[in-house]
Amino acid sequence: MNEAIQHLLQQFGDAIIEWTQVSPNEVRLTVSASQWREVAQFLHDNPLWRMDYPADLAVWDTGTEFGVYLRLWSSVYNHNVVMLTTISREEARIASLATLYPGVDWHEREMYDMYGVIFEGHPNLKRILLPDDWEGFPFRKDYVAEPSGDPLHGPQPVN
């Protein structure tokens, strides 16, 4: 895995902000958001990596920015890569990986639905869990839940 890491660092230089080899078969990378798609594409296509399975994608709100987490797995080499990045809450945009890894399609839609993160280039970015007319993004720390009295259109009053 050391040769693969060195090749990745040579290819992307400053786009890899930080990296840690957690175990013999797992690497964690903090990646520049502007190179998110390119690094994922490299990990997918490069014969030293062959990351062919997107195991998990998540977003979290710190109150000042969004964190984005992606875990990839190689069925060929049985190793994992965790990619991490941060994006602005005001301009919550990052490149979509849905055409590279079709398995993240619904994950990206869920992150859009709950946090309002725009996955640029996603083939069908629309709400997946909430009605189309839902206002706001309920997993954001600044979301204010206003009871609607209608279980299909907003939070319910608590008795």
What distinguishing features does this structure have?
single chain, alpha/beta, Beta Polymerase, domain 2, 3 helices, elongated
Structural features, described:
It is a single chain. The N and C termini lie far apart (56 Å). By secondary structure, this protein is α/β, with parallel strands linked by helices. Strand 6 (93-95), helix 3 (105-115) and strand 7 (118-120) form a beta-alpha-beta unit. The chain contains three helices and seven strands, in the order H-E-E-H-E-E-E-E-H-E. The mean pLDDT is 93. Strands 1-2-5-4-3 form a five-stranded mixed β-sheet. A two-stranded parallel ribbon has the order 6-7. The protein has a single domain (2-120), classed as NADH:ubiquinone oxidoreductase Nqo5 subunit (Beta Polymerase, domain 2, 2-Layer Sandwich).
The CATH architecture name reads: 2-Layer Sandwich
Number of helices: 3
Distance between the amino and carboxyl termini: 56 Å
CA radius of gyration is 18 Å
The poorly predicted ranges are none
Number of domains: 1
Q: What percent of residues adopt helix (DSSP H or I)?
A: 10-25%
CATH topology: Beta Polymerase, domain 2
- Determine the structural class based on helices, strands and strand pairing: alpha/beta
Record field, number of beta strands? 7
Task: Name the average pLDDT.
Answer: 93
Provide a brief overview of the structure.
With 159 residues, the chain is of the alpha/beta class. The protein contains 3 helices and 7 strands; from the N terminus they run H-E-E-H-E-E-E-E-H-E.
